[in-house]
Amino acid sequence: MEKQKIKDKKLPVGFTFSFPCAQTKLDEAVLLTWTKKFKASGVEGMDVVKLLNKAIKKRGDYQADIMAVVNDTTGTMMTCGFDDQRCEVGIIIGTGTNACYMEELRHIDLVEGDEGRMCINTEWGAFGDNGSLEDIRTEFDREIDRGSINPGKQLNKIVFPLPFVNRRVKTFLMYNTCNFRTKEGLKKCMEILTRLGVEPSEEDCLAVQHVCTIVSFRSANLISASLGAILCRLKENKGVVRLRTTVGIDGSLYKMHPQYARRLHKTVRRLVPDSDVRFLLSESGSGKGAAMVTAVAYRLTEQARHIQQTLAEFRLSKNQLLEVKKRMKVEIERGLKKDSHKDATVKMLPTFVRSTPDGTENGDFLALDLGGTNFRVLLVKIRSGKRRSVEMHNKIYAIPIEVMQGTGEELFDHIVHCISDFLDYMGMKSARLPLGFTFSFPCHQTSLDAGILVTWTKGFKATDCEGEDVVELLREAIKRKEEFELDVVAIVNDTVGTMMTCAYEEPTCEVGLIAGTGSNACYMEEMKNIEIVPGTEGRMCVNMEWGAFGDNGCLDDIRTTYDQAVDENSLNEGKQRYEKMCSGMYLGEIVRQILIDLTKRGFLFRGQISETLKTRGIFETKFLSQIESDRLALLQVRAILQQLGLDSTCDDSIIVKEVCGTVSRRAAQLCGAGMAAVVDKIRENRGLDHLDVTVGVDGTLYKLHPHFSRIFQQTVKELAPKCDVNFLLSEDGSGKGAALITAVGCRQRELDAQQH
User: Residues of the signal sequence (predicted)?
Assistant: First the structure.
């Protein structure tokens, strides 16, 4: 570096290390065993890249960025591959011998992946160490093995069994005497043996020359047989009738021996007749090849750095999450205060549910569940006493998109039509049942059975509904149908239904959470803090409608350009910003936006943006759950991407998996920060140093995603250390919960009637 005047530069370095190593990464290589007379202590079993970095640091007068550790055989193949793209095998035949070749990734069990190929360093010098070559080893081979520094190892590395000649002379003899057809060979043999202090006759020289020829011929044959096995493997992998390939070769024995190359080529063609093999001599394989591998590694490292920079925006620190929690608490207070409620983003809507179930609830109840593209009608039979039970019957009906985005009258007529069909199905059209209506959209409730729709979410856009009492809209539609009567007792938010369902099983449940298509929470707030409702005694469940958290810009510092793109392309631009960062309806779309950007920058899908990837909503959140599953190999991830029309490589699959994991992790953490604010608020309300509370949870994202629930719970624990929070999965909060709220409402109505 001093000579080249580049000591001040930190350049990417390729390290050619021509010994058997176990590699887990391109820049990591653990030495398995020394060969070629090396015996330096403290190196076997160590990462040679770390050792080299340590030595460079110790020297202290220059810096180097070691990008790749390369075997000389691989370097040979890469060098020849630059000149001939068919080159897929590399061989060294010199002081030692080794080979590498391009194997199909699907056959390499030690490496995750299934698409494409990877260079395998065979380390074939150890072939025979298990005794498989004993039938062709000679006494001379065994004697040389016993005298070596690694007896019993590297038996395939052919040496000259001439007991009266040292190893250096063996090689010299081989290069200079093996051409037995010339007198020059005999003359050289005479000179060499004389210098060794031997007085050879002409017959001695002929004998030595003959031995050299036999040994080198056997060496070429053995190498040819091993190479033939590799060529047959390549032919089989490719499934071709005739293989056309190039073998890159380096090494002093191959280059300098007068007959070796010819014998090797001839034997290979005889052993693998259905192959057209070109042998290409490498020029500085261990140098030029290492530089080429390093160049590729440098490009991939730069690509990885850009991808990590992109995803870094989604990786929130604990301080950032604590700040989200703090801002949520501020918005909760604004929603509860009378003077700021109107402008608050987190609306903290009263539900008029004043207590959780006490076990005395009894009767038959009808429940409606409207919260997504499907609509359910349920008959819920609640029985109290010693054999307390809840029995449910339900039927699911689709809501066509034209109804979701048509007029309000069309929507509610469709709902009533579904109720009529269900009552016919159950044979209960004559009964006037109490009904609970789970309506999973932001509503301002003025009583248990009156709720004014604040705004549509989740893709609904039916006209003439916002600002109207949805219970009245339902009652009017029932009147228009003129087929049956119902007693609408309660309008229920699915989050409140979730809390009530879990409270029926666990009395400490005072919080509800939905983490599914949408995201929302509710909890039992002190009446004295709910300034928009008269009264100060007891508690009331507050529907937070926290999906709109951030609509005033308080989360702008953690929103990314991808979040903004998702928001701009949504049906309700500028609204429900928190929900768009952490709910199932939007996570897949965030991922799609990132994938488009990475593809445009050439990091994914060969830089080609398919029509599929351009389609909004194509990347459903269920695909995130599937892709992130720990049980899925990259082959299955690739299959999922192919289902979406995305022709991906193994590397693409790895990147997509990381993108999905990063986006869903942020969602779980943001949701956890919000919940930490809620449980801390309950603790502070009650003046407790420590709170034990149960949160009832429902939603497909929480239930089906392989990591969401774990990360969410961990975040709550870290951000609210003074609260011991138990999480209980809800069983049908929007159905069973609606019936329970209706039952509690009926009980309360009877009590009120008795008091009057």
Answer: none
In a domain, 189, yes or no: yes
Identify whether the C-beta of residue 67 lies closer than 8 Å to the C-beta of residue 301. Answer: yes
- Quick one: which of 80, 82, 88 has its CA closest to 120? 88
CA atoms within 13 A of residue 229's CA, in its CB half-sphere: 10
Predicted confidence at residue 737, as pLDDT, reads 87
Half-sphere exposure of 71 (CA within 13 A, CB side): 25
Q: How far is the CA of 392 from the CAs of 375, 426, 739, 753, in angstroms?
A: 16, 12, 10, 29
Contact 661, 707 (CB under 8 A): yes
What average pLDDT does this structure show over 495-523? Answer: 93
Give me the residue label for tokens 């000259």: 160
Helix 318-336 and helix 650-685: axis angle, to 10°? 50
Active-site residue 384, yes or no? no
Count structural domains, the chain: 2
103 lies in the same domain as 250: yes
What one-character DSSP code corresponds to residue 607? G
Count CB neighbours of 132 within 10 A.
Answer: 11
Q: What is the largest CA-CA distance in the chain?
A: 135
Task: Indicate whether 529 pLDDT > 60.
Answer: yes
Say if CB 326 and CB 680 are below 8 A apart: no
Domain boundary among 228, 248, 281: 281
Locus of tokens 């032919």: 235
Q: For CA atoms 154, 160, 161, 163, give the dihedral sign.
A: negative
Indicate whether 471 belongs to any domain. Answer: yes
**How crowded is residue 127: how many other Cβ atoms within 10 Å of its Cβ?**
18
Q: Which pLDDT value is given to residue 233?
A: 95
Q: Residue 396 has what pLDDT?
A: 93
What would the pLDDT profile of 663-695 be if each residue is shown by its tens digit? 999 999 999 999 999 999 999 999 999 999 999
pTM score, whole prediction = 0.71
CATH of the domain at 115: 3.40.367.20
What residue type is 725 in one-letter code?
A: V
Single-letter residue type at 606: R
Task: Report pLDDT digits (tens) over 408-456.
Answer: 999 999 999 999 999 999 988 888 889 999 888 888 888 999 999 988 8
Nearest alpha carbon to residue 299 among 289, 307, 287? 307
Number of DSSP helices (H) and strands (E) in the chain, helices first: 24, 22
Tell me: do 158 and 275 sit in the same domain: yes
Spatial CB neighbours of 109, under 8 Å, sequence gap ≥ 6: none
Answer whether 589's CB lies under 8 Å from 613's CB: no
Is 201 designated active site? Answer: no
With helix as H, strand as E and coil as C, how does 562-597 read? HHHHHHHCCCCCCCCHHHHHHCHHHHHHHHHHHHHH
- How high is the pLDDT of residue 109? 86
Q: Does residue 328 fall inside a structural domain?
A: no
How many angstroms separate the CA atoms of 599 and 602, rounded? 5
Does residue 565 belong to any structural domain of this protein?
Answer: no
Choose, from 224, 282, 286, 440, the residue flagged as catalytic: 440
Mark whether 41 is an active-site residue.
Answer: no
Q: Which of 469, 494, 563, 732 is catalytic?
A: 494
Q: Residue 92's domain spans which residues? A: 84-281
pLDDT at 75 over 70: yes
User: Which range among 21-25, 175-179, 282-286, 718-722 has the greatest average pLDDT?
Assistant: 718-722
Rounded to 5 degrees, what angle do the CA atoms 642, 646, 650 make? 75
CATH number at residue 363: 3.30.420.40
| Listed residues 281, 313, 339: the one ending a domain | 281
Provide the residue type at 104 as one letter. Answer: E
Instruction: Report CA-CA distances (Å) from 523 to 332, 497, 675, 698, 730.
Output: 12, 11, 10, 14, 15
